[in-house]
């Protein structure tokens, strides 16, 4: 593939290639790599929505940390309070929540990418910056969120789970399901990212060490089953 960018990739996609054969990227070409990722997503038949297109809030760039040599991907769901819906509105709500006024507020939305239930790919945090999607485990990790709730009603063993279990018993909760188009888009996005970075690990949020709170539920049992299926298909390792 020729994107007219010299040394823009940090990994080699040729069969039999190794990490030692990867081409190191120059710092001043990282912006070109971000665009090359977007271009390849389009080439692979997916719709890509940039931050400006979904009207993301301005990040706190002065506090953000550079990151680049990504080797892991963490899969998330949007959480138990979300369902399939207008993705741009969900992303803005998530960004506002994560960048709130609490002491531990994030510098931007925590995920690098998000996929809605139609398979559209949304840009979250700029790939040039370290994410904030996995507690104490973000260096070298690309965060991808599926914009829906993928947990069973009973997951969490708390008040929310008790209410959701009761509602499920009387038929007021639709069991979570990942639509085929979204699954295909996630697999394609993982393949695209593997063209640019030497990805070795694919995990659900809760599989990474030291997670707590909602992180112990994410990406839900349904989301985790998909992650396990993708690991078998791609040969990537668990965290």
TrEMBL record:
SUPFAM superfamilies: N-acetylmuramoyl-L-alanine amidase-like. It comes from the Bacteria. Signal peptide: none annotated. Residues 46-190 form the Peptidoglycan recognition protein family domain. Coiled coil: none annotated. It holds the Pfam family Amidase_2. Transmembrane segments: none annotated. PANTHER family: PEPTIDOGLYCAN RECOGNITION PROTEIN (PTHR11022), PEPTIDOGLYCAN-RECOGNITION PROTEIN LC-RELATED (PTHR11022:SF41). Belongs to the N-acetylmuramoyl-L-alanine amidase 2 family. This is N-acetylmuramoyl-L-alanine amidase. The lineage of its organism: Bacteria, Pseudomonadati, Pseudomonadota, Betaproteobacteria, Burkholderiales.
